[in-house]
Each structure stands twice: as structure tokens, then as C-alpha cells.
Design goal:
This protein has helices spanning 3-6, 11-33, 48-61, 67-90, 99-104, 109-118, 133-144, 149-164, 177-185, 190-196. By secondary structure, the chain is an all-alpha fold. The protein has one domain. It is globular, with a radius of gyration of 18 Å.
Length: 197
């Protein structure tokens, strides 16, 4: 994982972020061990209506007026990125070995096998990413380091561009998935832009 080397943030912030990532490993495994045998991993999406309103207002004014909404979106993007990274790690798709974490929770081979079914959507899509993790983790780290709503919007927008490049990722971050990102990326017509200024 090279994401922590690429982000332009303070070392203390990077250390806190790394701690959050490890906390997510434990929360994911805790939730799994406490879940029914046929359960699937809980996953919360960013509400598209709120994103669309904040982005639209920002395009008109250059200001994010719904600061709490932007904070909520940022928090969810970081959480989903961490869960995606943790699932990818626990399913053995990274260089590190997750065995010590499985051992911490007393998970034998059968339990580890069941995790592979737990972290899968109903359509069979695994909740992992081999492509998008490095850029997403880097951007999520930068996102955790800023308190400016306008900077948060710009970083989240860059995260949307990363996930938009993969057909299976948008549905793990925003309500409506790819179709929502297409709507969000559509620019207003020239006449609408003139009215906005």
C-alpha cells in the first residue's frame, strides 16, 4: 500500500488515518463474527439527492452552504473506502497476510471461507477493489486532513472520478451508482451558466 506515501498531509494526520484503517479491520471482523450465518455486510451509501444539491449550489456560487451535509458525505466516503480496503486485504488481494487478524477472532478456515460470502453483494459482486484502492485511499487521507467544505467537495469529486472509471465501484459509494455519477458530471448549458452568475 503506497497511498500513505502519496498524500500531502502532516505525519500526525497520516498516523491517525492509519489507526482508523486498523480500527476498521477490527470493526469489520467484529460485525462479521456477530452476524447470522447468511448475513451480508452492511453498506451505507452517500445520498445522491444531497450530493446533487451541494454540487449544484457550489457550481453557482463557488461556496458550500450545507457544511454539515458535506461533512457527512466526506465521512461516508472515508468509511466506505476503508471498508473496501479492509475487505480487499482480508480476502487476500494485497501483499499482506490477514491471518493474524483472523486468528485474533478465532476464525478457522470455514469461518474465513464464510467471510468471502459475507463481503459480497446479492448480485455476486465482491466488495473489494484491485484497481481503485491506492488513489481512493490517498484521496480519503487528504479528505480526512481538511476541514474546508469547499476542499472536501473537490476531493470527493476526485474520488467520484476514480470510482466512475470502474463499473462495479460507483454502486459502493453513491445511491444510484453509475447513473448518478453521469448526472453529476453533466454540465449545465451555457444559458443556465449565464443565469447562475
Amino acid at each position: 500500500m503506497n497511498w500513505y506515501k502519496k498524500a500531502q498531509v502532516d505525519e500526525d494526520i497520516a498516523a491517525d488515518y492509519y489507526d482508523q484503517y486498523y480500527e476498521t479491520i477490527h470493526s469489520v471482523l467484529q460485525d462479521f463474527t456477530e452476524s447470522p450465518l447468511d448475513a451480508r455486510q452492511q453498506w451505507t451509501l452517500v445520498p445522491f439527492a444531497r450530493v446533487k444539491k451541494i454540487w449544484s449550489d457550489y457550481m453557482k456560487t463557488g461556496i458550500v452552504s450545507d457544511v454539515k451535509g458535506m461533512e457527512s458525505i466526506s465521512k461516508q466516503m472515508i468509511e466506505n473506502t476503508h471498508k473496501l480496503a479492509v475487505n480487499t486485504y482480508l480476502m487476500g488481494h494485497t501483499q499482506g497476510s490477514p491471518q493474524e487478524h483472523f486468528d485474533d477472532y478465532g476464525m478457522d478456515e470455514n469461518e474465513q471461507e464464510r467471510f468471502y460470502y459475507y463481503a459480497v453483494e446479492e448480485d455476486g459482486t465482491s466488495l473489494i477493489s484491485d484497481y481503485g484502492l491506492d488513489p481512493l485511499m490517498t484521496l480519503a487521507l487528504e479528505l480526512s486532513a481538511t476541514f474546508s467544505a469547499e476542499e472536501q467537495l473537490q476531493i470527493v469529486d476526485r474520488m467520484f472520478n476514480v470510482i466512475h472509471m470502474r463499473s462495479d465501484l460507483p454502486g459502493l459509494f453513491i445511491e444510484g451508482g453509475t447513473s448518478s455519477l453521469i448526472q453529476l458530471s453533466e454540465r449545465p448549458s451555457d444559458s443556465e451558466q449565464e443565469l447562475a452568475y
